[in-house]
Write a structure and sequence with these properties.
The complex is a heterodimer of chains A (422) and B (712).
Chain A lengths: L3 H21 L4 H6 L3 H16 L6 H14 L3 H13 L15 H15 L6 H8 L7 H23 L23 H11 L3 H15 L6 H18 L27 H7 L5 E2 L5 H12 L3 H14 L4 E2 L2 E2 L4 H14 L2 E2 L6 H6 L2 H12 L6 H6 L6 H31 L1
Parallel strand pairs in A: 1-4
Antiparallel strand pairs in A: 2-3
Helix pairs in contact in A: 1-3, 3-14, 4-5, 4-6, 4-8, 6-8, 7-19, 8-19, 13-14, 13-19, 14-19, 15-17, 15-19
Chain B lengths: L9 E6 L6 E6 L3 E6 L5 E6 L5 E6 L6 E6 L3 E6 L8 E4 L5 E6 L6 E6 L3 E6 L5 E7 L4 E6 L6 E6 L6 E5 L8 E3 L6 E6 L5 E6 L4 E5 L6 H4 L3 E5 L5 E6 H6 L9 E6 L18 E8 L8 H9 L7 H14 L3 H26 L4 H28 L3 H12 L1 H18 L1 H11 L5 H14 L3 H11 L6 H22 L2 H6 L5 H4 L3 H33 L9 H14 L2 H11 L9 H17 L3 H10 L3 H4 L10 E2 L6 E2 L27 E3 L6 E3 H10 L15
Antiparallel strand pairs in B: 1-2, 2-3, 3-4, 5-6, 6-7, 7-8, 9-10, 10-11, 11-12, 13-14, 14-15, 15-16, 17-18, 18-19, 20-21, 21-23, 22-23, 24-25, 26-27
Helix pairs in contact in B: 4-5, 6-12, 7-8, 8-12, 9-10, 10-11, 10-12, 12-15, 16-17, 17-18, 18-19
The chains are: A mainly alpha (422), B alpha+beta (712).
Family (chain A): Belongs to the sestrin family.
Main location (chain A): cytoplasm
Protein name (chain A): Sestrin homolog isoform X1
């Protein structure tokens, strides 16, 4: 039996699917998977449609080429191929697809930005903007903003694609029908058998911890909190080490990028080495500053993104694994803040000890891999984390990764633009 | 003393205005807490039911009231004694509200500022209403009323803009004063107790003490200027006297004459009003017939083009003559070519397949068809000539008022012409109508020709017209037939010019007209036979040799190119007119969205020139559904209840207030939803059909009111 609530969300998903199909002539796997969360899917599709097909300063072929560049940064062949199709549909120049050396200088200039935003957004500063906006065939500021949103969107979408192990579309290479299906059609049935098979110890433990955290009132000073934050960062730095980037197979999508070895470096190490300081969310928050600036330069985009962030942050079903009526806000907040912590963004009203208590080590490793090196994710990574959780909840966490990371990238970028403007 | 009660960061704290030990805090966790400094913990907690509280402020006028503004755009008014529920809540902004401030003196006013770049002044005395609204250039971070100045409020913004602006809420467009010493975003400011000193802090790590007289007055640097261009090419321009005096306003271009309009009103600023008053002058530059800017050709052709209601060839010919009249040979030629291209093929085919039986019978048939249109044509004809000149325009008014006298004067006019000098009457007709369309000319010729019973004259003249191509002949035949039908009004109409010019003698009105017109009818019918005979010969002669060599040339693409050419030239009028005239002949060659654009722009330009009738005609003639339904939208006429005089908005035949059906049929006592017939004598009525039936058998009103109704 389906409750009326699931039924209404079922119909909402169906309506959204129909709309997507009409707009894109296909129902891509990303959309299908996000169909678990129609509440989020709706603003997601609207945003994606707006930045790719709506009013905006950039021409359409540019938009798709930028999307290709961004996805290629994380070697996400799936997105690259989809975007190549779109690019050709917009009558983009075929020669551009041969690689970065064939494209106009203007697009090539964006590569530097792409690289930094994808891996080390804290390096992004106003000199980058200056470089783009000065000189021959320069970028206008609203074009830069548009490009940055596209880049961030596709970087983070790559995270999602890898995080959920999305298969190529049927019409793409290697995307034949008779493959092992990761996206079951009948979600309800799978969810049911999922939750019965595994024991719920993990979830119960987590709930207990959440309860204690929400009850206790720890007295801590600013200094202590800062220590916690830094400790968290240092810990996360130790999570993944000794992974050789070169061991990844060479991919043909790399022709859309340069400097393939440039990758994420732990923010903690960076801080020791240079004068780059922690980004305090109080100084430059999305709700106050980011939104105001963005809406000024690229109208409506701010509103769309704001809605998307808000829903991604607030969405809950009061459910965890097989347990119902759970207040998941502490857990969600821990994930969100942990992701932004990886990028050196600090919420100074947050006690980072909570992260340590709520997120077990392999979940943290998983989050870090996905946000920083999504291309290294394997299927076992997906299977091994959050064992007691449903598929839909894993997708939920992936959505949060997408959004938290995107917000982090945009915050750095927008701060740089604000500094450039003033 | 440290309070640690909130789960997340505290956005704002506020001390009570009277009690020094009461402190209120609003936090990111969505709660507000009230602290008593004499105690160690929060004395009460208020749950706002939103994600975060951005600002809290105690009311200076009411001991227990405070305002709280939220991230979701809501403003809540709380009573400290009640912790479970707010007193009042309303949505003030789209997006977060960052700040609020009670007016220090005016009890009703609360000012709020938010991310949507507005400062709003709310009147809270009744239902919250926006009293004033100020648009700023960036998100508003802080606002504060200026002490002792009722209408002044200061604001600083969150990003981009570093200045602290002081606004007069009655002049919301330009700040009254601005302090822009800061090099980064200002984070906060406070008024000294007197209104002339303001203290501000900023992210650039400085603190400034400003004195009001140092402030920049942006209004002094703003030069009020307004400029607009009318659709006729006139330019009007208003500028502050300061600029006008400094540099004498000059305008390049010979075709413009400038006039300075007198200043209509001047607002005298009161002494207390610190706002700068600006005196401006208005100049109007009239466009004196610059050929390139003048749009008379557009208006004229919009009025005179005929788009439907006649045969294709006639329409083309008429429109061509309109165009050439307006010195647009290019367009005229296009119309003629269109006529050539499209008229040739179908007519020839038809003619050929019949194997030229007797044109007499064809013209009979055509006559039958044409007769239906004859009435329209006669109207069209008179309409087209009506627009010829201002002179005729005036005439129309007169003749419109006394329709009967028009016929009379026409008849006698012709009578005079025939009796006096038949030859010159034709000549005068031609000369007076020289500016008229060719088609009309032909008709006039027919008319005069018939009047003089000289068929040859017509054909002699007609041939020059028909040098264009033989295919006109067939279409000319209906012209004759239709002329036959409607030449009486036409004829009556044309010779009116000379008469009007020499102010008709009074006896003309009394002159017996009917015999003459009967005579004419007689003559016409007789002459028609002759004409038809002539036509027969004529068509036969020209038809037979040409038919086999009919070119199978696909010219639709050329037409598409031509339409696009006109569109590129900015002449959508031509595009739309051609599309309408071609109609079915040219369906599906131009894609619908382009057509729609053309229609839309043409209609827009037409309404610019207030040519509503033409626009409406274009709309109703259009075959594109989105266009043709344009004039059916957004016009709703509500029925009025006869009892309470209220509009019946919900259902058209039932009054919600009186609970009655005001439109009851007096025969069947049901509500009438369609046509309602009512007697003007007793005001009773009902279904048209029922009333009709009733009054067939009864002379009285069906209600029994005793009135003798009459149905006509």
């Amino acid at each position: 039996m389906l409750s009326s609530r699931t039924l209404s969300s079922y119909f909402k998903t169906q309506a959204l699917f129909a709309e997507t199909f009409l707009q894109n002539n296909r129902l891509d796997h990303v959309t299908q998977l996000m169909g678990y969360h129609p509440q989020y899917l709706d603003p997601f599709l609207r945003t994606q449609n707006y930045i790719l097909k709506g009013d905006g300063p950039l021409p359409f072929d540019y938009r798709h080429y930028i999307a290709i560049m961004a996805s290629a940064r994380h070697r996400c062949t799936y997105l690259v191929k989809l975007q190549i199709q779109e690019f050709l549909r917009q009558e983009g120049n075929k020669e551009w697809l041969n690689g970065l050396h064939q494209v106009p200088q203007k697009l090539r200039d964006l590569d530097e930005l792409n690289k930094i935003l994808a891996h080390q957004p804290w390096l992004f500063n106003k000199s980058h903007i200056e470089k783009l906006t000065k000189g021959k065939d320069n970028w206008s500021l609203s074009e830069v903003i548009h490009a940055i949103i596209l880049l961030a969107h596709f970087h983070c979408l790559s995270t999602f694609v890898f995080g959920c192990g999305i298969n190529p579309e049927i019409d793409l290479n290697e995307g034949h029908t008779f493959q092992h299906v990761t996206v079951p059609c009948n979600t309800q049935a799978i969810n049911d058998c999922d939750s019965t098979q595994v024991d719920d110890v993990g979830v119960e433990l987590l709930m207990l911890k959440m309860k204690t955290i929400s009850e206790q009132h720890e007295e801590s000073t600013q200094e202590e909190r800062l220590m916690c934050f830094q400790k968290e960062q240092n810990q996360s730095a130790e999570l993944i080490s000794g992974f050789d980037n070169m061991s990844l197979p060479k991919s043909d999508v790399q022709r859309y990028t340069s400097d393939p070895d440039f990758s994420y470096q732990d923010f903690a190490r960076h801080r020791e080495a240079s004068e780059i300081t922690t980004f305090r969310i109080q100084d430059y928050s999305w709700e106050d500053h980011g939104f105001s600036l963005l809406n000024r330069l690229y109208n409506d985009a701010g509103t769309f993104l704001d809605e998307k962030f808000k829903i991604a942050y607030d969405m809950t079903y009061h459910r965890m694994g097989s347990k119902n009526n759970v207040d998941t806000s502490t857990f969600r907040r821990a994930i969100w803040n942990y992701i932004q912590c990886l990028y050196g963004i600090r919420h100074d009203d947050y006690n980072y000890k909570e992260v340590n208590e709520l997120l077990e080590k392999n979940l943290k490793t998983n989050i870090k891999t996905l946000c920083c090196y999504p291309e290294r994710t394997t299927k076992s990574d997906y299977d091994n984390v959050m064992r007691e959780f449903r598929h839909s909840e894993k997708v939920h966490v992936n959505i949060m990764m997408l959004e938290a990371r995107m917000q982090a990238e945009l915050l750095y970028a927008l701060r740089a633009i604000m500094r450039y403007m003033t | 003393m440290v309070f640690q009660d909130h789960k997340r960061s505290v956005n704002k704290v506020c001390f009570h205005t009277i009690e020094p030990h009461i402190l209120l805090s609003g936090s990111q966790d969505g709660t507000m807490k009230c602290f008593d400094l004499r105690k160690k913990e929060a004395s009460s907690t208020f749950y706002s039911l939103s994600e975060s509280v951005r600002d809290v402020k105690f009311s200076p006028h009411h001991y227990f009231l405070f305002a709280a503004v939220q991230e979701n755009g809501n403003v809540q008014i709380w009573d400290m004694r009640r912790t479970d529920r707010y007193e009042k809540q309303f949505t003030a902004h789209t997006g977060p509200v960052f700040t609020c401030d009670w007016h220090p003196e005016e009890r009703r006013w609360l000012a709020t500022g938010g991310r949507d770049k507005t400062i709003k002044i709310w009147d809270l005395s009744m239902k919250p209403m926006v009293e004033h609204c100020i648009q700023t250039i960036a998100s508003v971070a802080r606002i504060k009323w200026r002490p002792q100045q009722k209408f002044h409020i200061a604001s600083c913004s969150l990003v981009i803009d570093f200045t602290i602006n002081v606004w007069d809420i009655r002049r919301p467009f330009v700040p009254l004063a601005a302090f822009n010493e800061h090099k980064d975003v200002s984070t906060g400011f406070a008024w000294h107790h007197e209104p002339h000193i303001i203290l501000s802090t900023s992210k650039d790590s400085t603190l400034y003490l400003h004195v009001f007289k140092d402030a920049i007055r942006p209004a002094d640097h703003a030069n009020p200027i307004g400029l607009d261009i009318s659709c006729y090419g006139d330019i009007s321009y208003a500028a502050s006297n300061k600029i006008v005096r400094n540099g004498r306003s000059s305008f390049k271009g010979e075709s413009y004459s400038s006039t300075k309009l007198p200043v209509f009103f001047r607002k005298h600023p009161s002494a207390s009003d610190q706002f700068r008053s600006a005196v401006s002058s208005i100049f109007v530059f009239k466009n004196d017939g610059d050929k390139f800017l003048s749009m008379t050709w557009f208006i004229e052709s919009a009025r005179r083009y005929i788009l439907s209601g006649r045969s294709f060839a006639e329409l083309c010919e008429h429109n061509a003559s309109v165009a050439s009249d307006l010195q647009r040979p290019h367009v005229a030629q296009t119309w003629r070519i269109l006529k050539l291209l499209y008229n040739a093929v179908p007519n020839l085919g038809a003619e050929h397949s019949w194997g030229v039986p007797s044109v007499g019978s064809i013209s009979e048939m055509l006559k039958g068809i044409e007769r239906d249109e004859a009435f329209d044509n006669s109207q069209e004809g008179s309409k087209s000539s009506r627009h010829n000149s201002g002179n005729t325009f005036k005439n129309r008014h007169q003749s419109g008022s006394k329709q009967s006298s028009r016929h009379v004067s026409g008849g006698t006019g012709n009578g005079v012409a025939t009796t006096d000098r038949p030859d010159t009457s034709g000549a005068t007709d031609n000369s007076t109508d020289s500016e008229e369309s060719d088609n009309d000319k032909t008709i006039t010729n027919i008319a005069s020709g018939l009047g003089n019973t000289q068929g040859d004259f017509f054909f002699g003249d007609g041939e020059t017209d028909q040098l264009m191509g033989f295919q006109c002949t067939l279409s000319q035949a209906p012209t004759i037939d239709s002329a036959q039908d409607w030449n009486l009004p036409g004829e009556a109409f044309q010779p009116r010019h000379p008469i009007k010019d020499c102010s008709p003698p009074p006896e003309l009105d009394n002159a017996p007209s009917s015999p003459t017109s009967f005579d004419e009818d007689y003559i016409e019918t007789k002459s028609m036979v002759g004409i038809n005979g002539e036509v027969y010969d004529y068509t036969k002669l020209l038809m037979t040799p040409e038919v086999p060599s009919s070119p199978a040339w696909v010219f639709n693409d050329v037409i598409v190119d031509m339409l696009h050419y006109f569109a590129a030239q900015g002449d959508v009028q031509m595009c739309v007119s051609v599309l309408l005239v071609l109609g079915e002949r040219f369906k599906g060659f131009v894609d619908e969205t382009t057509q729609e654009q053309w229609f839309h722009s043409y209609i827009e330009i037409l309404s610019c020139f207030q040519l509503w009738n033409v626009a409406n005609k274009v709309i109703s003639l259009s075959t594109i559904s989105s266009i043709s339904s344009l004039n059916q939208q957004s016009t709703t006429i509500h029925t009025l209840c006869g009892n309470c005089r209220r509009q019946m908005t919900r259902i058209g035949w039932f009054c919600d207030r009186c609970k009655i059906m005001p439109t009851q049929c007096s025969v069947c006592h049901q509500a009438v939803r369609g046509l309602y017939a009512w007697c003007q004598g007793c005001a009773h009525g009902g279904h048209l059909q029922h009333i009709q039936e009733w009054l067939q058998y009864h002379p009285w009103c069906p209600t029994g009111c005793g009135h003798l109704c009459e149905y006509t």
